[in-house]
Amino acid sequence: MQAVSENTVVADATLDVEAYMLRLGQQARQASRQMAAASTAAKNTALLAMADAIDASRETLHLANEQDLQQGREKGLDAAMLDRLALTPARIDGMIEGLRQVVALQDPVGAISDMSFRPSGIQVGKMRVPLGVIGIIYESRPNVTCEAASLCLKSGNAAILRGGSEARHSNQAIAECIRHGLAAADLPAEAVQVVETTDRAAVGKLITMPEFVDVIVPRGGKGLIERISNEARVPVIKHLDGNCHVYIDDKADVDKAVAVAENAKTQRYGTCNTMETLLVAEGIASTVLPLLAERYHAHGVEMRGCPVALPYLGDEAIAASEADWETEYLAPVLAIKVVSGLDEAIAHINQYSSAHTESIITEDFDRSQRFLREVDSSSVMVNASTRFADGFEYGLGAEIGISTDKIHARGPVGLDGLTSQKYIVLGQGHIRQ
Amino acid sequence: MQAVSENTVVADATLDVEAYMLRLGQQARQASRQMAAASTAAKNTALLAMADAIDASRETLHLANEQDLQQGREKGLDAAMLDRLALTPARIDGMIEGLRQVVALQDPVGAISDMSFRPSGIQVGKMRVPLGVIGIIYESRPNVTCEAASLCLKSGNAAILRGGSEARHSNQAIAECIRHGLAAADLPAEAVQVVETTDRAAVGKLITMPEFVDVIVPRGGKGLIERISNEARVPVIKHLDGNCHVYIDDKADVDKAVAVAENAKTQRYGTCNTMETLLVAEGIASTVLPLLAERYHAHGVEMRGCPVALPYLGDEAIAASEADWETEYLAPVLAIKVVSGLDEAIAHINQYSSAHTESIITEDFDRSQRFLREVDSSSVMVNASTRFADGFEYGLGAEIGISTDKIHARGPVGLDGLTSQKYIVLGQGHIRQ
Questions:
Q1: What is the pLDDT of residues A239-261, one digit of tens each?
Q2: Domain total for chain A?
Q3: The dihedral of CA B103, B104, B108, B111: what is its sign?
Q4: Which of A88, A388, B199, B352 has a beta carbon 3.0–4.6 Å from B325's, enabling a disulfide?
Q5: Which of A197, A210, A191 is closest to A27 using CA atoms?
Q6: A259 to chain B: which residues are within 8 Å by CB?
Q7: Residues in domain Aldehyde dehydrogenase (chains A, B) (predicted)?
Q8: DSSP per position, B82-137
Q9: Residues of A with Cβ-Cβ distance to B124 under 8 angstroms
Q10: Are residues A215 and A353 located together in one domain of the fold?
Q11: Is residue A212 located within the same domain as residue A282?
Q12: List of chain A residues whose C-beta atoms are within 8 Å of the C-beta of residue B360
């Protein structure tokens, strides 16, 4: 019994992680019952107490974050990664402000809608209810811990948060503030649990215990999300690519077309709602493309055009290949294609788009209506920049992510997306005949 | 090259099934684009033409069904199975009537809601859109072919239908009528495809091609649904057990309590919304249980009581075991437990229920509100029989199933459950600052 092989140790460690995650799951399920019944006042009290705790813990948060940054530098993380990891004073302000904004949001839980009487005499309608337990898996940004916790809490859910291992000291320090807030409102401490182990087996377990976890929201790169979707046995709210399109119709107003197509590409390059392919009707290509090429050139955007577009794009533009139509550059690069008209534009989008966000620029009513209806993406726009596709711009107040799925929630997911509706039936002793 | 081993043959057959299913998937995806854009008038024309085709094909349907019944008898199917398989004249009437009812339902596609202006000037709202391609997997009832096709069609989706192998002649005959209807409205024939192979690998492929199938709806026994949920790589709208509860509070009206608890158990035994466990507050047990025991006894319902309930249930009642609290009998058997009050009732339900349908009988307002809010089931009722939990009683007009899932749709799933909402944004050249 003394000779313990390395294999046994590994097996035991895995068992421990499994047991640990099962315990978190059980506790979360238990806490979710209390959270579902928690009053709006209690939830808001907790959120405000969290904000106060964070404000009072700036020094602690800074020291914890310094530990993570130090280890990150030693591990050779690149500058972008270290930047995402940093809890600057401005980001701490942002966390506090975010919590207060969530307090101001309407509580979705318990909202009753569509009550109507049926011929049998019963009254039937729907009540909005929390999903139960939400697992959030994210990468290096520690402020996500606070943001995700606040949205799950306000929507009456329990949360299990699994952040990146490189942010673990920061995440634990934030978790301490969250616990403080929950305690201040007499809500269960297990309503928000931050996974403490950095063992990757923890994620594997989290996404395969449907008895304790109702939905997983991964936040991070496409690789993370695809891996989780493939292995999960729990529903996943996915946010995959944003290969977004603007289509300039030949009945477009040229000024609007140029303004929107410039903004959609150049306002920010690294965001999921940035335009990646510009489609232009052949009837207007010779008018708008030279104007746009000038703008893109000034911004330093690399243009990759189809053979018809190229002559209008200036000397530095290069030929697009098939792969360009499928690519989310997240960079100052743009694919440009001339199409015969609306039909070809819609067909191109429905073939190549990641179903995130697309916009038509047109003054023609019928074409705008067809585009709205026939383009199968989570956000479809008329005469507006794709950059508007986010929860704040849409008035959701906050956003846990943007869904590129088709069931449950499409597009920016706010508090409502973390809830569902059950049926309620009121009678006076009604029985079925 | 001549010596082909049995293994090779199997592999080739599997490849053929895979290729066949991929073709169905591609065709369905293609057709789904046209269906999403189809007018309400075209969809209704197709449904009415299907009804006419079925009416005109009674003899063909009867002969095809006779083939299935004959083979079923030869295979030794039991009487219940053969009954489900039979396309009696009344069931054919039911199919025709069902199609006409779906025509009368409001088209959910394209409905726009919640349009509002944002501070940026854009106008944001939601548009209801089809899910895309729906795979339906069902067992022996051939009339499901017609019903599922009609609901998918009206909601603007393409459907791939995989019925039980024992009903294949009947299903193909119905499919012929469906194709006739689609053709009459100039809708693509591939909008509804009935899988022709009875190879089980077809199901395995259908549930693992997310690129062509957006959601799977299995209709059948728990075994089928669990198997599909475990293996699917596509979202599944699940309908698992209906372990439903009625809780008689000590502030219940005795007449209502007896009427509802009798009806919920005895109106039909084999349905998912039938009560399987009766909970009674101890303060009212000695009043209602003897009255109910008399009714149940008269109906031949076997009673299994907890130690406190047993003395009130008569000589034939037996002691309940832990397993009884978890069991969906689908039979004239009822578990009965006396609880201390509302808290214990809610805790018992949230622990043992399958989250399908539960009802409280009480005259107390606060308790009714707590029960509605804190019971985590897809239908929660006050003073009404659990038997009301279905799409027709709720006014959905038709139902593709009852979801015991928490995301996307809970409870009876009608046309809306086969759709989702995308965001639409209207501007006049708006760009993001």
A1: 878 999 999 999 999 999 999 99
A2: 2
A3: positive
A4: B352
A5: A191
A6: 429, 431
A7: 9-298, 325-389
A8: HHHH---HHHHHHHHHHHHHHHHSPP-TT-EEEEEE-TTS-EEEEEEEE-SEEEEE
A9: 393-395
A10: no
A11: no
A12: none
**Cβ neighbours of A380 in B, within 8 Å:** 127, 422-425
Question: Measuring CA to CA, which residue among B186, B222, B187, B147 is closest to residue B399?
Answer: B147
Query: Over the stretch A300-341, which tens digit does the pLDDT of each residue have?
Result: 999 999 999 999 999 999 999 999 999 999 999 999 999 999
Please check whether residue A316 is in contact with residue A325, taking contact to mean a CB–CB distance below 8 angstroms.
no
Q: Using an 8 Å Cβ cutoff, are B128 and B421 in contact?
A: yes
- List the Cα angle B344/B347/B352 in 5-degree steps: 120
Nearest-angstrom CA–CA distance, B111 and B421 = 9
Judge: B379–A423 Cβ closer than 8 Å, yes or no: yes
What does the pLDDT look like over A158-217, one tens digit per residue? 999 999 999 999 999 999 999 999 999 999 999 999 999 888 899 999 999 999 999 999
pLDDT at B8: 38
Are residues A217 and A77 both part of a single domain?
yes
Residue A401 within any structural domain of the chain: no
Instruction: Please report the residues numbered 364 through 403 in chain B whose beta carbons come closer than 8 angstroms to any beta carbon of chain A.
Output: 370, 372-374, 376-385, 387-389, 393-395
- Among B203, B231, B259, where does a domain finish? B231
- Reported ipTM: the value is 0.91
State whether B227 and B261 are in the same domain.
no
A97 Cβ contact partners less than 8 Å away, ≥ 6 residues apart? none
Q: Out of B36, B263, B420, whose CB is closest to A431?
A: B263
Cross-strand bridge partners of residue A421: A128
Mark which residues 155-214 of B lie under 8 Å from A by CB.
Answer: 214
